[in-house]
Amino acid sequence: MTKRFGIDIDGTVTCPSALVPFINKGFGLNLTIADIKDYDLNKAVKVSEEKFSKWFIENEPIMYEESPLAEGADKILKQWQIDHELFFISARGSHLLENTKKWFSKQGLSYNHIELIGSHDKVSSAKHYQVDIFLEDKHDNAVMIHEECDIPVLLFNTPYNQDPIPKGVIRVNNWFEANHWVKNWLG
To answer: Which among 144, 178, 182 has a CA at the least distance from the CA of 163?
Structure first.
């Protein structure tokens, strides 16, 4: 039976540490993913919100175009696309759609739809596209999507999403664990 997957991009399809080298270069730091304890990257960088926001906006296109895939993401997504619909729903701004499509093409990834909503509130998009399951790395998004849409959400385990999770939000450490969970869920 075909299912519709809602899938976040950054930190889920891309490696969770993808932005760290850019941050290190931009701010003269030596951070690792283990140093990122909060989704708000500015807390690790420790500069004014205005300065960080300006830097982020200026560097966003190149960071997204050069972000590496999370290990196993390409293999698993290529398997899923055979029998399921893949809807990528991201907080990226819509002005980055061409950059995003270019990245997907470069990675050899197919999609049924890419939705760049420009905010972290993915609940309305998940409802609109009637996704059956969601894959995410942002803790509060995962919880809200599960609670509002009553669907399972796979939360990719990172140092920045360690708050407790309700039943129905399932922590996975990588794409291989996600695939294993999905196979069991599909029966």
So the answer is: 144
Global confidence as pTM: 0.96
Interval 5-52: pLDDT, tens: 999 999 999 999 999 999 999 999 999 999 999 999 988 999 999 999
* Model pLDDT, residue 42: 87
Q: What is the mean pLDDT of the chain?
A: 96
CB atoms within 10 A of CB 142: 27
Letter for the amino acid at 179?
A: N
What are the tokens at 174? 């990588």
145, 117 contact by CB (below 8 A): no
What residues does 87 pair with on adjacent strands?
A: 6, 113
How many other β-carbons are positioned within 10 Å of the β-carbon of residue 131? 24
DSSP-based three-state secondary structure for 66: helix
Q: List domains and CATH numbers for the chain.
A: 4-15+69-186 (3.40.50.1000), 20-66 (no CATH)
